[in-house]
Design a protein that fits this description.
Layout: H1 3-14, E1 24-31, E2 35-42, E3 47-55, H2 63-78
Amino acid sequence: MCPVMLTFLILFWGNISCKFNSVMRILGIDPGMITGYGVIEGNEDEIALIDCGALVSPGRSPMGERLSYLYNGLLEVIV
């Protein structure tokens, strides 16, 4: 995962204004030429990187096929 995305996720975590008593999981998506993603989880005291990676769709495929590839890849990350 891109260090910039990881930094953004951590900064985002620090800016959450509401207090919570349970674990929260956040999925960050970087929709560039290569779709990067990062998943962090934490509570008030700790943050942990759960998963990160990139989804590279076939370059010369029709737009519908590329979107379907990205959808299925992100669905696997979420589930």
